[in-house]
Give the backbone structure.
Amino acid sequence: MTKHPNGFEFKEIVVPSYDKVLRIIREEAPKLPRLGIIGWDFGIDQDGEPVFIELNIFPGQNQRGSGPSFGDMTEAVLRDVFIEKNLKDAFN
């Protein structure tokens, strides 16, 4: 989907402070080495500063109506994270 039902095009949207958000995530993600996929939720305050809201270790779980969280990459992500990484050390 490239266009909102109200008519505006997504490619024209600029996320304020996006570079700052990415910098924070790159600094914080290594502190959580056991988590393969993390959904980071940020808001942007009146001064354009990122405000951390929460992180989700199972991103997309609450957005079932929007389709697969990873689009065409869903199978590869599930295989990589949930099978190859999580089950490789499982004891049977």
